[in-house]
């Protein structure tokens, strides 16, 4: 039982090593570009949602 468990662990680690060889990691420029896009998108969305919230707050204030 212990030998079978050990061999399955070894096989799993071998498979993991093989899969990691197939992975292509982004370059530093790609990472910086993607991060910039995410930050800009978050800023734009926060400004948009703030404007919508302020407008809806104003609208509800007028309705009451």
Overall geometry comes to elongated
The end-to-end span amounts to 74 Å
Number of helices: 2
Mean pLDDT: 95
**H-E order:** HH
Task: Give structural notes.
The chain has a domain of 29 residues. The protein is elongated. The model has no long low-confidence stretch (mean pLDDT 95). With 64 residues, the chain is an all-alpha fold.
Write the layout of secondary structure elements.
Elements: H1 2-22, H2 28-63
Short note summarizing the structure:
Helices cover 89% and strands 0% of the residues. With 64 residues, the protein is an all-alpha fold.
Sum up the structure in keywords:
2 helices; about 60 residues
